[in-house]
Amino acid sequence: MPFHIVLVEPEIPPNTGNIARTCSVIGATLHLVRPLGFVIDDKKLKRAGLDYWHELNIHYHDSFAQLKQKYPDGRFFCATTKADKLYTQFTYREGDFFVFGKETKGLPPEILEEHRDTLIRIPMLPVKRSLNLSNSAAIVVYEAMRQLEFPGLI
89: which DSSP letter? Predict the structure, then answer.
């Protein structure tokens, strides 16, 4: 598993389903941090993930702290519109974690503060709020995969 995508309290089933599909096709691990804004058997979630659910490496956590405790040596890159550095300004390594917050509020301030040296953002016009969550996750993880020359994919 070259990378981990972490969704902290995701709210919209199709976004999580799309991210699950991305994880499945590149071999990334998906981590969902509760509470979730939907139930896992939601039809919209399953439809977006199509038939990839049985191939997905997915883990559930009751808190972000619990996730970090399980992976004490992990490098966590937190996506936020508040970051100074672009996602392309870091050199990624196999096993890195890419953390995304809930669609309506992003990541909580305490997570952002704890990871202020590894906050990443995707460039966009300053008058816009943010990109769609599943698009953002794909953009970031594919940059990391590109840096490692798409291990196992080509």
Answer: G
What order do you get walking across the sheet with 4-8 strand by strand? 57-61, 29-33, 4-8, 97-100, 76-79, 119-120
- CA nearest to 138, candidates 39, 22, 42, 57: 22
**Per-residue pLDDT reduced to its tens digit, 10-26:** 999 889 989 999 999 99
CATH code for the structural domain at 4-147? 3.40.1280.10
- Sign of the dihedral through C-alpha 87, 90, 92, 97: negative
> CA-CA distance, 129 to 152, in Å (whole number)?
35
- Answering whether pTM is above 0.70, one says yes
Q: Is the dihedral of CA 117, 122, 123, 128 positive or negative?
A: negative
Domain boundaries along the sequence of the chain: 4-147
The two tokens of residue 46 are 């399953």
Cα separation, 140 vs 87, whole angstroms: 7
